[in-house]
Write a structure and sequence with these properties.
This protein is an alpha+beta fold. It is about 35% helix and about 20% strand. The protein is built from 9 helices and 17 strands. Strands 4-3-2-1-5-6 form a 6-stranded mixed sheet. Strands 7, 8, 9, 10 and 17 form a 5-stranded mixed sheet that branches. A hairpin with a 2-residue loop joins strand 15 (about 370-375) and strand 16 (about 380). Helix 6 packs across helix 7 and helix 8 (about 265-290) runs antiparallel to helix 9.
């Protein structure tokens, strides 16, 4: 889908920007590739191209003469260059009259998924007296906002993930009762079959992590060397998937179980802190929306971490509180992060994201993950919230 230039221009004027300069060299900027409609076209570019959408007036491009058709499908005319002298002259002409423009740049690389333009290209633009600011919020508006159909696909995927989660815990309990040896990989394999039954696809298989492996946030069981799941153990499930329909978006949940009738006090304390941190972030976001106040990703992360730190678990935090959801499980919207980065992008109406505080220790770990979709009625949690560790018996 190509950019709606008139909508981009309206957003630029609202933001007080003179333009948005898309730039790519050999696929170095996947954001620009997607927005320009090149990523899905199979069109391969080996030379630098620029596409300027001004706040007023017609867009303009700058392309190499051997790839002169690169931007022909987009509105506006393109100037052609061959040598470096023509390139620099063309860039000067392209940026004439521009004061402040957005590019895929993030100050101090605060948000790596936005920071796609190399420092040398930023220098070339600044040498022409033009100020460069981050296009992070613009990317959100034109890549992370869900359509009504996408929101419906998320809800459907969410319902199916919860069913798969329930089947996984039930399978673990049944195997333990029947004395059937069961590994993390066995359950992961079963879950992938249930994904297929439910019409879900996923970029990576779900996480099934028992006891000490639950203390590794990105643990993945393998066919060889996978851990057996025994009685009296923590089990963490983390699963994400989407429908197979075009433009479907992901749902992503995590749930905690214990293979015994009563979880130990250490597990209960850690889960309770994570649960309360999760709900503190939800409350902050929903109250801000009700008050008509903008809320940034870093604020929600900070609200959750304050709860974890007050409970004495600050040293067990290893990752941010949440991430954007989209057609990829980690989308191009704002993340809930004031820990790994400081994400100053706004949480925008129309977007979706996870809230997933976790605590990680040498002997076990906990994570509780839910999704929020900011729909017409405000930010809504799109599935059940886990309130206590599930007894898997």
């Amino acid at each position: 889908m190509l950019l709606d230039v008139s909508a981009v221009q309206a957003a630029l004027r609202t933001a007080g920007l003179d333009g948005w300069l898309l730039y790519d060299f050999h696929g170095s900027n996947p954001v620009a590739q997607r927005l320009a409609g090149l990523a899905s076209s199979g069109h391969i570019t080996s030379r630098r191209w620029y596409y300027l959408i001004p706040a007023q007036g017609a867009p303009k491009g700058l392309v190499h003469k051997i790839e002169r058709r690169t931007l022909a499908h987009l509105p506006g005319a393109s100037t052609e260059y061959a040598g470096r002298v023509e390139l620099e002259a063309g860039l000067t002409a392209l940026l004439a009259g521009m004061g402040t423009i957005a590019m895929e740049y993030s100050p101090r690389n605060a948000i790596p998924s936005v920071s796609r333009v190399d420092a040398g290209t930023i220098e070339l633009v600044r040498d022409r007296g033009v100020q460069v600011v981050s296009s992070g919020d613009l990317i959100q508006q034109f890549e992370a906002v869900w359509s009504a159909e996408a929101l419906a696909s998320h809800r459907a995927a969410s319902e199916r993930l919860y069913r798969v989660k329930d089947r996984a815990f039930a399978a673990i309990a049944a195997r333990l009762r029947d004395g059937v040896p069961t590994t993390e990989y066995d359950i992961q394999t079963a879950m992938m079959a249930w994904f297929a039954e439910e019409g879900l696809v996923t970029a990576h298989p779900p996480i099934v992590a028992a006891q000490e492996n639950a203390g590794n946030p990105h643990y993945q069981p393998l066919a060889t060397g996978s851990r057996a799941i025994g009685r009296g153990e923590v089990v963490l499930l983390d699963l994400w998937g989407k429908l197979t329909s075009p433009d479907a978006v992901y749902a992503d949940i995590s749930w905690m179980g214990f293979t015994g009738p009563e979880p130990p006090a250490t597990l209960v304390a850690a889960f309770t802190a994570a649960r309360d941190a999760r709900d503190a972030a939800v409350t902050l976001i929903q109250e801000a929306a009700a008050a008509g106040r903008e809320v940034c990703g870093w604020e929600a992360d900070a609200a959750a971490r304050r709860v974890l730190q007050a409970a004495g678990f600050g040293a067990a935090i290893l990752h941010r509180t949440g991430h954007s959801l989209g057609e990829e499980v980690h989308g191009n919207g704002a993340h809930l992060d004031d820990y790994e980065t400081r994400d100053e992008r706004r949480l925008l109406p129309g977007t979706g994201f996870t809230i997933e505080p976790g605590l990680y220790f040498d002997t076990f770990g906990v994570r509780t993950e839910i999704n929020i979709a900011w729909g017409p009625d405000g930010p809504e949690v799109t599935g059940p919230r886990q309130m206590a560790v599930v007894p898997v018996v």
